[in-house]
């Protein structure tokens, strides 16, 4: 009985591994918004936009999930004065639907033949089935979840090395 309630609770919060991410409501970047990691104008790449919204409404936009994770994993470097606990929403653009989904719930494929604005990229997908299909269609090497992304992995991705 307790197990049944635990599964229901996990499903209601989207905590089950196969749970579908709900779209997140984040504004599009303005023409002059630049990625805090690489300095590129983000609005030029709408299919790759990732965004962090802080509780006070402050936004940082990125030209892909890779730079988003570089930012999140080294916040003091890229956003001095900002704190992780003040982040309200983190969204990435889903590859197939081009909608913004929760970055923590997305599935990411690395090592594919699809390149983003900064080269090899973490390709965000909404479901594990979409990730598997993308991986087969685009010669992907590995499927990751957000908690598996590390600075070391991102550096390897920049060099075109895949695990």
TrEMBL record:
Key word Signal present: yes
Pfam families: NosL (PF05573)
Xref: InterPro entries: N2O_reductase_NosL
Signal peptide: 1-19
Gene3D superfamilies the record matches: 3.30.70.2050
Swiss-Prot/TrEMBL keywords: Signal
Keyword check for Signal: yes
PANTHER family documented for this protein: HTH-TYPE TRANSCRIPTIONAL REPRESSOR YCNK
Name of protein: NosL
């Amino acid at each position: 009985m307790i197990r049944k309630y635990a599964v229901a609770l996990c499903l209601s919060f989207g905590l089950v591994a196969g749970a579908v991410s709900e779209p997140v409501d984040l504004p599009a970047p303005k023409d002059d918004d630049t990625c805090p990691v690489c300095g590129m104008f983000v609005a030029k790449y709408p299919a790759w936009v990732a965004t962090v919204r802080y509780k006070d409404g402050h936004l940082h936009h990125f030209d892909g999930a890779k730079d988003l994770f570089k930012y999140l994993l080294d916040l003091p470097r890229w956003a001095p004065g900002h704190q992780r606990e003040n982040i309200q929403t983190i969204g990435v653009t889903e590859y197939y639907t081009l909608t913004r989904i929760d970055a923590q719930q997305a599935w990411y494929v690395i090592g594919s033949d699809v390149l983003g604005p900064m080269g090899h990229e973490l390709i965000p997908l909404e479901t594990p089935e979409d990730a598997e299909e993308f991986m087969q269609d685009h010669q992907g090497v590995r499927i990751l979840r957000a908690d598996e992304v590390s600075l070391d992995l991102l550096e390897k991705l920049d060099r075109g090395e895949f695990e």
